[in-house]
Amino acid sequence: MGEHRVVVVGAGFGGLEFTRAMGGAPVAVTMIDRRNHHLFQPLLYQVATTSLATSEIAWPVRHLLRGRKDVTTLLGTVTGIDAAGRQVLLEGGGVVPYDTLVIATGARHAYFGHDEWEPFAPGLKTLEDATTIRRRILLAFEKAEREQDPERRQALLTLVVIGGGPTGVELAGTIAELARDTLRGEFRNIDTRETKVVLVEAGDRLLSAFDQKHSAYAKQALERLGVTVELGKPVSQVTADGVAFGGAFLPARTTIWAAGVAASPAAQWLGAAADRAGRVIVEPDLSVPGHSDIFVIGDTASVKRPDGRPVPGVAPAAKQQGRHVAAILRARLAGRAGPGPFAYRHDGDLATIGKRAAVIDFGWLKLTGWPAWWLWGVAHIYFLIGFRNRLAVSLSWLWIYVTGQRSARLITQGDGDSAT
Amino acid sequence: MGEHRVVVVGAGFGGLEFTRAMGGAPVAVTMIDRRNHHLFQPLLYQVATTSLATSEIAWPVRHLLRGRKDVTTLLGTVTGIDAAGRQVLLEGGGVVPYDTLVIATGARHAYFGHDEWEPFAPGLKTLEDATTIRRRILLAFEKAEREQDPERRQALLTLVVIGGGPTGVELAGTIAELARDTLRGEFRNIDTRETKVVLVEAGDRLLSAFDQKHSAYAKQALERLGVTVELGKPVSQVTADGVAFGGAFLPARTTIWAAGVAASPAAQWLGAAADRAGRVIVEPDLSVPGHSDIFVIGDTASVKRPDGRPVPGVAPAAKQQGRHVAAILRARLAGRAGPGPFAYRHDGDLATIGKRAAVIDFGWLKLTGWPAWWLWGVAHIYFLIGFRNRLAVSLSWLWIYVTGQRSARLITQGDGDSAT
Prior knowledge:
The structure is a homodimer of 420-residue chains.
Chain A: E1 4-9, H1 13-21, E2 27-33, E3 37-39, H2 44-48, E4 58-60, H3 61-64, E5 71-75, E6 78-82, E7 87-90, E8 95-97, E9 100-103, E10 107-109, H4 127-146, H5 150-156, E11 158-162, H6 166-182, E12 196-200, H7 212-224, E13 227-230, E14 235-239, E15 242-245, E16 248-251, E17 254-257, E18 261-263, H8 266-270, E19 280-281, E20 287-288, E21 291-296, E22 301-302, H9 315-334, E23 349-353, E24 357-361, E25 366-368, H10 369-383, H11 387-403
Parallel strand pairs in A: 1-2, 1-9, 2-5, 9-21, 11-12, 11-17, 12-13, 19-22
Antiparallel strand pairs in A: 3-4, 6-7, 7-8, 10-18, 14-15, 15-16, 20-21, 23-24, 24-25
């Protein structure tokens, strides 16, 4: 017979780490993704705010896997899974048979039942999301420069970020710096320092997964950057003209959604039980109930920590799960006992606020301010893939740090507001 | 009264050089472009072939002009010119009044009366063109990897470039290198060295504006890279399935147009006489007949050399014209005699063939091969704008040179074949 065929759907952190950890095992791996690149999502907000270019945080999957002769990379969109027949179904009619299947298809943004808000408040999950947001932010300033009416101009110079988690905090801080520092002096009819950046959070503090002191620190750091932080204010309405929250309506022509995610359609493909966000409820060993040959990992899986809390949708969690499934499969193939149930180990939390402040909470190590920002930078550069990319991103950050100038300020895809 | 108001339409080489040369003159300048960035077009083919990222060859116009307090930059699309009322008409209803107007709106691709070919054979004039071509090239290999039928697979692995001028030669050579070197080893079902790159030229030699010996050199260098060069073969048909030339039909799923350009609509805006490619026929001082307050420069102007040959549509010509018009205007404002008619000074021609060969013909200096490539590289880096960009592009090229790896291999804007 042939080798054990493993199919991995999704080339994000979970899928890639699983594939890496299978190196040398007696398997033939097929990696399928609907995009040709692996995306370093933690830095996506920097593309959206012109600090980094798209090619600095995304790398072709087949290039990353080129040294693995046991791995075939396919560009394809999965439309379903035939679990009885053990094959993955692709758009256009292709099928990919498997002996073991690993689903790592991630998350997308969710609007709490208000999908009609999406055109007015794009989320930040893909490269196209990032360049769309970038285009809207830059266009707002361009339009304001030409706008004679003071009220319309003020609405153009008002940007709202919805959601006070790490993504929202990072976006709000960087947009404020972009307006205040990078763009200052480039306009003649407007003063970009009059830009109003508003971060709206429904809960009572920012960074709710962090320590209370860090939530307070982040709020102060944002306010020092000129950001208006609105806590305890759930959003009730989002339109092309602005956002309603806390009983008032704020005219704003640019709104960004960082408030909710939902899982990929994996649960539907499998007909499996899912939680409220659509994540597949998996067994303790990350397999699908009733299908010991199918594993689901990363943001699209619902996994619990030993204390019952959900495992967060962060990169380290996806990577740990990828390694765990690889260990299970290698044990099976070798006929030995496996590693047992998955136990998430939470390393810590990190978030930046602009380019001079950050919060890091590793439990044993808590840092804020300047030292935290440098450690954050070093850690992210370390986790980037490839020497050239580490060099490129380091240079980009060094340039921003020293000169305040951001080098990826392109409005592409025409000047319209089309989403792609 | 106020200062003399100058309006410049177009932030390409001509418009920017004119603006630069007006520094310190008693004028208020308004620069209008429908894009927010200045594009370094000579390197656009490198974005299309994944060697450079978009942000390495395009820079925000208002950033380039930030130090000029006399210059206001506006993002806007011109729809017409009211020459009697002396104002520029913008999409959306804005008007920009002028005392002197400089039109530098460049060229776009033209299909010799076959506009229906455009969806199947995109040209290369804007950043979106470059990323569209890049996406199609990369998708062709991705689809070939999944294609079972040998004939369809061969059509996917056949790429045609139409037009044997510098752009076509540069594209064909770099695509061949991309397939042969960069992508080799990354696919499991196809061997990218079997890619067929065909360069089709209607005339009897490549680089018809260059010396005969250079045309022959370029053909040999391309053939050494594995490119098939078809001379004396005008194209008669372009479809989604392939190209017809020289009495035969070649099945090819990726075709790129580098064979013809036409001017922007400036002549229509002005109701002025134009040549066959739509270029405005200007006076010897580059003004529009009957409108001494309107100048047209660059690719959108039809200008003759002293010997009667047309001035080529190259960056140095646009820059020389920009400087000439600035000299005329400064003389007028100071009440002295102007510099007289414009006289184009042809510095020379340059083209690269892959990363190890090039042709340079400066008249007094003719180079081919490796030394030409290095000089070409140094010259282009010199003409880039800004230290950071020179550093970034130098690093990108050094990386490609040493490792063969190209770092901008992203398929963005989804996986479809939509043009934007």
